[in-house]
Amino acid sequence: MSVELVKNSEETPIAHDRRAHATFFGIDFQINAAIVIMLEHIKEMDNIRLEGYDDIDIELNDRSHILAQAKSVEHSSTDFSNVVANFKKALVSLSEGAQKCGNVKQLIFITNTSRPFGGNVTRPEFMGDAHRCFGDLSQNLQDVVKNKLAQLSLPLDTSKFMVQILPFETDNLQERYKYVWSLIGDFIAETKIDPEIISRKDLRNIWASDLFKSGTMDAFPIHKTKKEVIWPLIYRVTYNIPYDNEDLDESERECLESEYRHIIDECNEKFEFVTSVYSDYLHYRQTHSGEREMINAFVLNQYSTYSYILNNTSTAVSDELKEKLIRVILRSILYKREKINIIKREVGL
Amino acid sequence: MRFKSIYLREAFEERHIEWSVNNLIHSDNNSKGKTTLLRLLLYSIGYNIPNTHDIKFEKCIVESVIETDSYEEISFKRNARNHIFVTKNNESQTYILPSQECELHQFIFGISNTDVLDNLLGTFYFDQEHGWQSMNKGIVIGGVRFNTEELIRGIADIDCRKEKQQREKLSHEISRLQQMLSISQYQAQIDTETMNMSGTSFNTQIESQIVQQQMSLNILKAELIRIDKALQANKNIRKYIEDLKLIVKLSDGQEVPVTKDNIVGMEDTINYLEVKRKNIAGKYNNISKIIENKAKLIHREDLQQSFFDNVESIQDIFDQKISQIPINAVYVQRKIEQLKKERDTINERIRALTYFDRGAKISDSIFKTINYILEKLGDEPLSSLDNIFVTNKKELSGAILHKRVFAYRLACLLEVEKKYNINLPIILDSPRGKEIDNENISNMMLLLNKEFKKNQIIVASIYDYNLDNLHRVEIKNHLIEQTE
User: Could you tell me the domains of chain B?
Assistant: First the structure.
């Protein structure tokens, strides 16, 4: 793969040079396929790597691997000339990867064509996105797979084989990434991330960029752990301070952000203080179970307990603003805790 | 208190003047030194009074003798602006001016409240330029100001020091920010000129960009140091807790050792900081690279321009340095507005304190006295108390303004005298303003004769006045020429 040419492109590695176009399209497909498979297995995933035991290599918490071979066709809805060759290569690669790895849970042939095994007719089960295990294939297709595998000295275990279709076509990115974005959108919704803080498009770009760098590493094995994939997301999601719940005019908000942001950050990053607030909050929650908007109720009723944190702060700020600052700090700690808990639970971190 | 005498000496000329109860400093023509004498009189008791055209005060020796209300004599000798010798009962003391001005006037007038002392001159001295213009607030003379509200707070012993300190601090901040804003406007001007001129070198622009990037770099570096400290502190706590080897009992009775993995939030806090550190370190590296690349550009231009003597003027260097200061004009403007709002709030608080309780009684008393004096002067009384403090001078004709100022100041003077049981002199410079007719002047003098018998009156004018037992101080050609 020609890495240098695509290094600086975060959105997509498409070059103007038509000769390189197919190569870049292939890389882009591989990266997006990795994101899709990663999200589908995020809970049990431990780490991911491109160009590991196969194009995509996901190691699970039980140390078994999901290996995927990504084969794309640039004009997938009209060009079927290479699909059979791709299918054969995928079987060979997956079989070899499985042998090398030794502990494989699933072997995925992921492609963007609706005729993954060739043939003259587009089959309805491969239209759109599709996940078909070997057992779910028609007898005819099972035979096709078996015939190909029979030619290999160490064929893969068909019970672990799956063919997956990822719709991915055209130079129009709105069209090309729509399925990937949709899946990321579901992830954002499940993890209750505010899409205004990070959109599905942003998140795809971030992960694509991260995984692409991982795929260019020469030394093997280099793993992108789940922690490494998810924590930058958590950082991004929890970086902004929740000023909205406080009655701040624009100047007060600017004052807090420009002059007191470091205090807010320090309080958020000091474990003793964070755990003290969280512990008080849990206790409050137990004793005030009927209240709505528990964090807000806790902050409004308990903020005066924490006024000591601003004892060493400049007196230039009014008492009213100090109170608001304390409430902002408490909310930021508790909202952050809440967001971290949700995301970690949803991704099994 | 009243003035007994004054001695003036300038080079080889000298003059001694005795004062009586009612005095008229008179000359046939203008610009002979009447105003100078009045100002020297105030200068002689420590006030920071500006020179007149005739005489530079600091080059004179001025000695005054006054008599206090308890009939004690105090003599003053001033031969420089920055100090004064004061003698009472054969004991002399030097006061450093202006830092001990308040202390000196406390000694003279027996008033300790600084709000009253700061505004005292405005109650008894009517300067020819400003004295007949300012009513509730304004300039008395030079840098000395008068503010009725402040005076009322002083008389009523209303303590606003805290508010005034806050206001002063805010004013200082606003002033600083306004300077910043001026600089940013100047920067904009420089930028515009730079766009139009080829004078500024390529290097200068790049250097300016490097300085800006360097500032961003410094901010990131400070943040990295802070994060490292926080990380270390959290790791120390983690180790401490782990080393304690605590065991907790769960609600089901199970005993569980406390480790870094089951302390809620511990690893999250550390993970968060590590990601943040990585993020900021990434930005730091990017900016470092930008600086490095820009520095290379400078080196290249240096090589290209080595043939030329690139001597820049001081103004150019100044402009370059000014251009390098990063100022967000929008933010500064907003901040100024915010601070002004805060200052307005404090001013409102001070105003509210002024008219509460004791302050209200003082202002009411001043109001009544003003109307009493206006009546004596044949003028319309004020309709309400508010008119004491909210006055649109432009609406008033010359004569009415003149009389109102007179009434305002004398009403304030009476309030001070009542509070401290003292008598102050009344010093009027050119009381016959441009539009004051004889009848008005007669009324004013009649008022002084009748109602201010205990006060020493000193008037400077080219006219004659009908004051009881008037003592005339004549100035012929020049103030300091011995005529008595």
Answer: 2-157+345-474 (3.40.50.300), 202-309 (1.10.287.370)
Q: What percent of chain A has pLDDT over 90?
A: 38
Between the alpha carbon of residue A139 and those of residues A135, A163, A165, A180, B10, the distances in Å are 9, 15, 19, 30, 126
Distances (CA, A) of B191 to A349, B181, B209, B315, B322: 53, 15, 13, 14, 11
DSSP string, B336-363: HHHHHHHHHHHHHHHHHHHTSTHHHHHH
Of B226, B265, B271, the CB nearest to A274: B265
Strands B137-141, B125-126: pairing is unpaired
Q: Which of A227, A235, A255 sits opposite B279 (nearest CB)?
A: A235
Of B125, B164, B197, residue with least CA distance to B456: B125
CB B407 within 8 A of CB B377: yes
The tens digit of pLDDT for each residue in A5-35 reads 333 334 444 434 555 577 788 888 999 999 9
Q: Give how far B230 is from chain A: nearest CA, Å.
A: 7
- The percent helix, strand, coil of chain B (3-state, each to 5) is 55, 15, 30
State the Cα–Cα distance between residues B46 and B42, nearest whole angstrom.
Answer: 7
| Residue type for position A166 | L
CB A46 within 8 A of CB A240: no
pLDDT digit string, tens, across residues A199-235: 888 889 888 887 766 555 444 444 688 998 899 889 9
Opening angle at CA A177, ends A8 and A185, nearest 5: 110
**Measured between beta carbons, which residues in chain A are less than 8 angstroms from residue B276?**
235, 269
How close does chain B come to A63, measured CA to CA in Å? 20
Q: Is B95 helix (H, G, I), strand (E, B) or coil?
A: strand
